[in-house]
Amino acid sequence: MRDASSALWQALQSGNPIIVVLYEDADLREDLVSEMEALLPLGRKAQRSSDVTDVFTTLDVFLFLTPVDERQSLLVLDGRREALLDRRAPVILLLLRDGEGVRSLSEVPGLASWLQGNEIDPYSLQQIDWKQERATFERQTGMSPEGWLEAYRAGRIPDTLENGLLATQAGLLENLP
Amino acid sequence: MSRKRPWLARDASLLEELKTSGSRKIDHKAELNRRLHLLISREMCPDQAVAWLKTEAREERRKRFILSENSNARVGIYPAIALSRLQHLQDGARLTLAVLVEKTSQLVSYNVGLQGRGRETDAPWYARIDLTEQPEGEGPCGHPLLHCHVGVDSSNKGEPETRVPLPFLTPAEALDWLLATADPALEPTDSD
Predict the structure, then answer these.
(1) What CA dihedral angle connects B94, A154, B159 and B73, to 10 degrees?
(2) Which of A39, A99, A147, B143 is a good FRET partner for A71, with 20 to 30 A between their CA atoms?
(3) Domains of chain A by range and CATH?
């Protein structure tokens, strides 16, 4: 089943020389890079960079590239894409979702074709369909998340491991102020 | 002196620590992943175990870190990670994790559990640490906000329902405690 963690892990292990990961904003980007670093195989080196030329000099490290000028970096990567094949660890190119880099992909069809299928949008993969999940919860338990939590807290639902796990799901789905 | 007051004070103190921990902006998922890396480095679980801890997000409001359906074991219908080479539990012990946070780091509730059979005794054993969002049950003595269940059967609905009160622990610290209980070699060290 596809979720952000497994999609990122598979991409990092895939052997592809470059993958694209979309991010929402600068704050979330740092968290995202940290999360990807945690998914790397033990002992593998990682480096963060905003300089696209590092792609052609640091061939053995997982390179998390966050270019300041996304469009210009894509043009450089497209112009030297054959050199990407020399890499022994992937470049993880972080692009702002709906940003200039994503909009510029049509200008670099050669690179874009390489990237096809290697683009991951963790934010979207993490989002639940709240209404649908609530409906599923209600169908499975016969109660709304709020009603279930109230019964659980009052001790009317047994305090088992499975119900403890279900309580975190109800907490994710309950109506919030 | 009121018999209830010390228990209310403990819950109040825990809530205060919970609030403080939120301001420390702990990345609970990263901390749990560090523990999973430790287990991977000791060949106690597969390399991909770090990929099994997924995030379910409700926009920017709440997030849940939970094991994915890709993981290699189950407790009932719920995904778990099978652990091997633990000193005191037979191979196939099952680890369960669920952490609910507000925004990115404020803990709301969590549930960290480990169950298996003793290596020498073959006796079933489980322990799970629960942080509950609100007071539950009959009162803060029998059902403190942060407590540990210890018993033989995680689905047990029998009596008495044992909840051992605990001082404030983050989910990763709760996992440290469970792992060090099952294998003293996993005791946290100064260099961790």
Answers:
(1) -10
(2) A39
(3) 4-126 (3.40.50), 130-173 (no CATH)
Q: Which of B57, B138, B161 sits opposite A126 (nearest CB)?
A: B57
Q: Is the pLDDT of residue B49 over 90?
A: yes
Q: State the complex-level ipTM.
A: 0.93
| Cβ–Cβ under 8 Å, residues A162 and B78 | yes
Distance CA B18, CA B89 (A): 31
Phi and psi of A47, rounded to 5°?
-145, 140
Segment B77-89 mean pLDDT: 97
Identify the three-state secondary structure at position A28: helix
Q: CB distance B98–A164 less than 8 Å? A: yes
Q: Alpha-carbon dihedral of residues B141, B143, B149, B152, nearest 10 degrees? A: 90
pLDDT digits (tens, 9 = 90+) for A23-76: 998 888 988 999 999 999 888 899 999 999 999 999 999 999 999 999 999 999
- Judged by CB atoms closer than 8 Å, whether chains meet at B111 and A31 is answered as no
pLDDT of residue A1: 54
Does B111 contact A10 at a Cβ distance shorter than 8 Å?
no
- DSSP line for A56-104: GT--SSEEEE--SSHHHHHHHHHHTGGGGGG-SS-EEEEEETTSHHHHH
Q: Residue B134: which of B11, B9, B40, B10 has the closest Cα?
A: B11
Distance from CA of B151 to the nearest CA of A (A): 11
Q: Using one digit for the tens of pLDDT, what is the confidence trace for A114-165?
A: 888 889 999 999 999 999 999 999 999 999 999 999 999 998 999 999 999 9
Residue A95 near residue A69, CB atoms below 8 Å:
no
Instruction: Write the CB contacts of A138 (distance below 8 Å, at least 6 apart in sequence).
Output: A144, A145
A35 touches B: beta carbon within 8 Å = yes
How many Å apart are CA A161 and CA B75, to the nearest integer? 9
